[in-house]
Amino acid sequence: MALHSDERPGRPIAKFESMLKTDDVYFFDAEDFEDIIHHYLNNGKVALAKKAIKIGLQQHPDSIQLKLLDIEVLVFQNNLDEAELLLDKLQLLDSSNEEIYIQRANIYSKKDNHEAAINLLYKALELSNNGYDIHSLLGMEYLFMDDFKMAQKSFMKCVEIDDHDYSSLYNVIYCFEFLENFDGAIHYLNEYLDRNPYCEVAWHQLGKQYFEKKMYPEALTAFDFAIISDDTFMGAYFEKGKVLERMGKYLEAIENYETTIEIEDPTSHAYLRIGKCYERLRNHDMAKFYYYQTVHEDPLLDKGWLAITDYYYKRRKYDKAFYYINKALNIDGENPSYWKKCAKINTALKKYDQADYAYKQAVDLGNYELTTWLKWAEVSQLNGDINSAIEILAQGREFFPESARLQYKMAGFQLLANDKINARITLIDALKNDIEKLFLFEEEFPQFADTDWTLNIIADIKRASR
């Protein structure tokens, strides 16, 4: 026996869940079913949403909105072919329904055909009275296509419609940042703040733009206004702390980081920044304390372990540094800078085999810095493998063909390998490149610097340059 919803008190959701627990069947208006389904979808309860759709369509088989919700769930679950068949049927009944085009656009988006999705969304926009949600979807489609200018325009439309749509505001600023148009972001945010002077989110974003442009006093002012607008806004205190750090005001920075800890539960990032401030204040005991607090709070924060590594490395406690760099590598073994740090520590420990391996890992992962090639070559030479050292420097020259420092080192290593022919060619290249840096060769290879062989090459180059 079906009971009308008016016969039982309570909200539609509570009544619907009560119905599921009994053998009774309650009657709901189509709008009630829509509310119930949206509730479950918003809370990630897809199975219950599907039950509501099924019962809803049994009671209201002609409801286009319920059919559209059915299609939305099918698209969400990647049942795209079934969803398209239902859309075809629905379009015959209501060809001017914007939601039909939106769901078709979602299907094309799922298939990575973003241009087709955009065309359908513009068709939906023509049929829409508001268009807010459609502009948001357009923005996301343009982001998928890496068209940041068009994405930005779409999200700007959302903000025009709803000044409090902070998600779209963030996306607008994200596009400015990706395009590295910090001046444009500053202008846009200032215009926005003229309309919404107490928006802490906008002040916070404005401060971040000033920070990127190294306009620290202006950034500080913006973060202060964010805090005035909302004195519990943790992000503003944290960013203000970063600005104060850059300005060398470490005690004030610490105060702001501590405020973030007071507002919410302690965060490893706040502890890490406090530790960095104390280290710059040369309060090493407090720095170490906060670094250990960092990894205690979040053992998976690799930057915390790296901070402890650096702390011990600077104090030449290489065994401890080695222990902690391995903690960082266990968390992020794909980070080339960590491998380079590991190589430097192993070199200090005179573990040249391990240092060689670490430098190779750093290069394989994309660290092509000049110092990496130079130090790796030195390690190979200390390992007694001079030919590998020369080969490493040859690879480095592919990235730094004009580096005199690299050329002088390579010439010296070739002489160590008794390869005078190639050493002569390399030394001539170095002298032609930058004769003023000859001292690098003289300091590192004094045994070759004052020989007739070397002096004759230098004299020839000097004569040729007159």
Question: Your description of this structure?
Answer:
- The chain has 466 residues and is mostly helical.
- The chain has a domain at 368-466: Serine Threonine Protein Phosphatase 5, Tetratricopeptide repeat (Alpha Horseshoe), CATH 1.25.40.10.
- It contains 28 helices and two strands.
- A two-stranded parallel sheet has the order 1-2.
- Helix 20 runs parallel beside helix 22 (370-382) and helix 22 runs antiparallel to helix 23.
- The longest helix has 15 residues, at 420-434.
- The chain is elongated and about 105 Å long.
**CATH fold assignment of the domain at 368-466:** Serine Threonine Protein Phosphatase 5, Tetratricopeptide repeat
Trace the largest sheet across and list its strands.
Answer: 1-2
Could you state the oligomeric state of the chains shown? single chain
Which secondary-structure class do the elements indicate? Answer: mainly alpha
State the separation between the terminal residues, measured CA to CA: 109 Å
Instruction: Look at the structure and give the mean pLDDT.
Output: 90
How large is the radius of gyration? 33 Å
InterPro entries: TPR-like_helical_dom_sf (IPR011990), TPR_rpt (IPR019734)
TPR repeats: 98-131, 132-165, 234-267, 302-335
Pfam family, one: TPR_8
Keywords: TPR repeat
